[in-house]
Amino acid sequence: MGQSLQGERVLLGVCAGIAAYKAAELVRRLRESGAQVRVVLTDGASHFVGAATFQALSGNPVRSSLWDAAAEAAMGHIELARWASRVLIAPCTADMLAKLAHGLADDLLSTLCLASTAPLALAPAMNNRMWLHPATQANLEIVRARGTEILGPADGGQACGETGPGRLLEPDAIVAALASNTEKNASKVLQDVRVLISAGPTFEDIDPVRYLGNRSSGKMGFALAAAAQAMGAQVTLVSGPTALPTPNGVQRIDVRSASEMRDAVLGGLPQDVYIGAAAVADYMPQRTSEEKIKKSSAMLVLELVRTPDILAEVARDTKRPRLVVGFAAETQALEDNARAKLDAKHVDMIAANRVGVAGSGFESDTNTLSVFWRDGSTQLGPTYKTEVARELLSLIAAQLKQP
Ligand code: PMT
To answer: Per-residue pLDDT tens for 288-307?
Structure first.
């Protein structure tokens, strides 16, 4: 299965029903398709499948009560509601559907649904008469009218021995429906736009075992690549050394050093947009030793020379993209330093982030960007890098439309 839910954070609610056993498989399928998953069980659900199963499969703690002080201290329910980029309830019982239709918040899962602004999808599973009951159908209409996606139910034999509508959709079908809705929902504002993105660190070799590097994980650049692809762009991702999987539909070129990154980026032109999200080393050893340097003296002096400035070279290339966007990693005077880079490197837009603070910049899943262009600026976040990426690309799409 592809990475069709790449970057999504799915909060999976599991209600009490025999179909709860299929939710365990669903967690695996969601993760295989690129989503992070956190599971919330209703009280009754844990009679069917235990929390340990979901914890092992999701790789995250499982929540089931509003009154669990230790779990609340680790990640409060409002924080959990904010964390989710999608809320999926599978299986969704008639009781949970009724609660959602009428805005009840008398357990953790229904409270999370009220507190979250993420799109909600329900995969109902219940006895066919319960499903066809006018009360259930009326509740269904209420939630559907609010934009809730209803996935299934399937028709067929039921655990109670009856036949009819009310079977939980198979996990693969739920994931496929969720992914196709995600794709449809992503506006294709970059349809057929060619976007080249650099991501991750560069490693500058000192000798066969040592190098100069930095803390970039590649998360920001990879989030941009996934979001641009979802918005319809043809994406090429030039990546320094990272452990991240390639977003679905993205062409990836792996490099190690700043010089290799330069060659791959300039060789990748022409493009419509270049986004330099990589943390390119500013200096590299003047010479890479072919042999491991021995620790024979008390002090070792490394002679460093400047690396090529890839962003500046792209901006003055004869095949210059229509829009050249740089990043700026700053610890102080964010705006002054970012605007200085905007001018010095002749780029169209600079996205500046603070580094050295928790929740922003290197390694973290979240970021805050101050974006500057000649006659304007805006702030994106603080939020997840996947969201920041979508917002930055929307800005880029708007700039591309300008004459
Ligand atoms: O990868 P993550 O862990 O998710 O972290 C994300 C990030 C912090 C690395 C990212 O958001 C970011 O800020 N990237 C740019 C880091 C950086 O090198 O900033 P800078 O201010 O040193 O460089 C300014 C711009 O020039 C950047 O677009 C950089 O790619 C580019 N540059 C710098 C030096 C060089 N030799 N060539 C370049 O192209």
So the answer is: 999 999 988 899 999 999 99
Is the model's pTM score more than 0.70?
yes
DSSP string, 362-397: SS-SEEEEEEEETTEEEEEEEEEHHHHHHHHHHHHH
Q: Are 49 and 125 in contact (CB under 8 A)?
A: no
CA of 261 to the centre of ligand 1 (A): 13
Backbone angles phi, psi at 371, to 5 degrees: -105, 130
Task: List, for residues 142-169, the tens digit of each pLDDT value.
Answer: 988 777 889 999 988 888 888 889 999 9
Question: What residues are labeled active site?
Answer: 160
Q: Between β-strands 204-205 and 154-157, what pairing exists: parallel, antiparallel or unpaired?
A: unpaired
**Could you tell me the distance, in angstroms and rounded to a whole number, from the CA of residue 150 to the centre of ligand 1?**
42
Per the prediction, the chain carries an average pLDDT of: 93
Q: Is the pLDDT of residue 3 over 60?
A: no
Which residue has the least CA distance to atom 27 on ligand 1? 327
Q: Is residue 1 very low, low, confident or very high in pLDDT (cuts 50, 70, 90)?
A: very low
Backbone torsions φ then ψ of 223, nearest 5 degrees: -65, -40
Distance 34 CA to ligand 1 centre (A): 26
For the CA of 353, the closest atom of ligand 1 is 13
Which residues have C-beta atoms less than 6 Å from ligand 1? 198, 200, 216-220, 258, 276-280, 282, 307, 309-311, 326-329, 341, 353, 355, 361-363
